[in-house]
Design goal:
The chain is α+β, with helices and mostly antiparallel strands. The chain contains seven helices and 14 strands. The structure holds succinic acid and manganese (II) ion.
Length: 280
């Protein structure tokens, strides 16, 4: 049984029971049911989506067709209602349990995966981008994905290799140059497209998948998927007629804030404001 919502005698919310914390440490992810969050969260997100998707700024990434919105970054910086959601006690309590520190949001985004047109994410780990791009020294971050639609086997669920987060940064190669369709974009766009810049070796992926298996966490809209930045993951293109949008917050510990890098990425990819969030 899923264990949810206990409060310590001191009043500090620890929403994840010990089994869920253990599951996260062992498998690198945990899937929580919709009632983990307040009932109005999906309505709040839906109310800002049209405005967020309409903003023609560098924080909006299109699919290679040049018209379909793939991702909008920085929602916690541009949409006050989303900033509020990052401070929900259930989310802050859970990520504090997993990270062991006060936390702030390093990056937020909504991945749309439009019906028929939402493209893939190749196999990758997230942390190498935050290490090499943003100077974050330890992989002690937590991805929180709120399902904005039901996620099924048909609409491009995330796929994980459970337990693959325990091996650190996996072997692979770095691809130079810009992916097809994004030739004229700024260099940092290369890290955001369907083709990953840091390519994990196929033999490494195969060995891990053979020994650990594959899993695609699925569930109704409002479900919350927390996953480790070193878990090996991918997601397939959405050729179904159903959208598969996810709101994603990347929480980092305040003690793990970025070190200086030669070419800092835009603030919508790496928030420089590493101040501890207080519950709303
Ligand atoms: C990710 O890899 O961070 C997201 C992929 C997805 O939205 O399926
Ligand atoms: Mn990823």
């Amino acid at each position: 049984m899923t264990q949810i919502a206990t409060t310590t005698p001191g009043g500090v919310a620890e929403p994840l029971g010990p089994e869920l914390v253990e599951q996260y440490r062992r498998d690198g992810y945990v899937l929580l049911p919709p009632d983990f969050l307040p009932g109005n969260v999906l309505d709040v997100v839906a109310s800002v989506m049209p405005d967020a998707m309409a903003q023609d700024t560098p924080a909006r990434i299109l699919e290679r067709d040049g018209t379909t919105v793939r991702t909008v970054y920085g929602l916690h910086q541009t949409q006050p209602a989303i900033a509020e959601l990052t401070r929900l006690p259930a989310l802050l309590g859970a990520v504090r349990q997993l990270i062991g520190d006060d936390v702030y949001v390093h990056q937020s985004k909504v991945n749309i995966k439009a019906p028929f047109a939402g493209d893939q994410w190749e196999w990758h780990q997230d942390y190498i981008y935050w290490l090499q791009g943003d100077g974050i020294q330890k992989p002690d971050l937590v991805n929180v994905a709120v399902f904005l639609d039901e996620v099924t086997e048909f609409n491009g669920p995330l796929t994980f290799v459970p337990g693959s987060h325990t091996g650190g940064v996996l072997g692979g190669t770095t691809v130079d140059g810009m992916p097809v369709g994004y030739e004229d974009a700024p260099a940092w766009v290369a890290t955001l497209t369907a083709n990953e810049q840091f390519q994990v070796s196929p033999s490494v992926i195969e060995d891990l998948a053979r020994s650990n298996g594959l899993v695609s966490p699925k569930g109704p809209a409002g479900s919350v998927l927390m996953f480790h930045p070193n878990i090996l993951h991918s997601s397939a293109a959405n050729i179904s007629p159903f959208r598969r949008a996810m709101l994603m917050f990347v929480y980092n510990g305040v003690g793990n804030s970025p070190h200086a890098v030669a070419e800092p990425r835009p603030a919508f990819l790496a928030d420089p404001d590493a101040v501890a969030l207080q519950p709303s």
